[in-house]
Specification:
- By secondary structure, the protein is of the alpha+beta class.
- It contains two helices and three strands.
- A three-stranded antiparallel sheet has the order 1-2-3.
- The protein has a domain at about 35-105: Nucleoid-associated protein YbaB-like domain (Ybab, Chain: A), CATH 3.30.1310.10.
- The longest helix has about 30 residues, at about 75-105.
- Helix 1 (about 10-40) runs antiparallel to helix 2.
Length: about 120
């Protein structure tokens, strides 16, 4: 009885070549999408808009905007908390966009492969 599967005589090398080409194409698409994401900006606000923080898809803070009324020398801690909250929200937005992009590219595998 003939053995099924395996490489010898099973036609796998052709399938393997196709898989490798698909993997390379997917890698190029992921790199292009990652570059595109890195150019995007994500802005979040805290304190009813009194603090605004902008980050890039690279997760770098590029802008912090403060309303005059939130700058109170007697309450620096509140301002610090608002800056942290806005920065964390903007970073979360960037991460969410990255996860969404990876999900599209990997067919919903959660941004990675299980091996």
């Amino acid at each position: 009885m003939a053995k099924r599967g395996g490489f010898p005589g099973g036609g796998m090398p052709g399938n393997m070549n196709n898989l490798m080409k698909q993997a390379q194409r997917m890698q190029r698409q992921m790199e292009e999408s990652q570059k595109e994401l890195e150019t995007k900006e994500f802005t979040a606000k805290a304190g009813g808009g009194a603090v605004e923080v902008t980050v890039t898809g690279k997760k770098e803070i590029t802008k912090v905007k403060l309303s005059e009324e939130v700058v109170d020398p007697d309450d620096i801690e509140m301002l610090e908390d608002l800056v942290v909250a806005a920065a964390n929200e903007a970073l979360r937005m960037a991460e969410e966009a990255n996860t969404e992009m990876m999900g599209k590219m990997t067919g919903g595998l959660g941004g990675g492969f299980p091996f």
